[in-house]
Specification:
The protein is α/β, with parallel strands linked by helices. The chain is 54% helix and 13% strand. It is built from ten helices and five strands.
Amino acid sequence: MKDHYIIAIGRQFVSGGRQIGHMLADKLGIDFYDSNNLREEAKKLGIEDGIFDLFDEKPTRSFLFSVVMDPYAIDSAVNSGKVIEAQRKVIQAASEKGPCVIVGRRADKILEDTKGKNVLSVFIAADMEDRVARFLEREDMNEKQAVKFIEKKDRERASYYNYFFDGKWGRADNYSMCFSTSRMTKEKIVDIICDYLENWE
């Protein structure tokens, strides 16, 4: 196994990717980062919430409105380096502490060219039927509303990921490994990833 590695997990909404990330971190005894952990990391680094929100997977209403009303709004932020630099700074700071799992945040693309770090990029998907069932366990919606909401969340993740990078969100050729929680249990997926890491040279 490599000494320093990062498992970067991309996932469809309510596909179980976050849970798999937690399970991997627990089994491997390494740090886990998601939006909440990385937001705390950003605060420690003195990065204001507004900048963090600009590269969040869930853009604020004001952000989406500004992009629709002013197509140059996001370009201005990106070109000034604020968004990309803040994003990179937070992800790199987390990854430098040691082996870890990072869920979302385009960590795979941010870290792929970082010297001395080995990034295993994983994408987690699931059938819409299973995702809807999982979503309705926690939300009070009908099935039609749930499908619409899930599709919206996927579009947000895909469009934001693809805006900053050439890689295509959710495409198999963009990741080291791809899994479906509709075809395989979370436990089995975790076992396969861990087995791969054991023999990763």
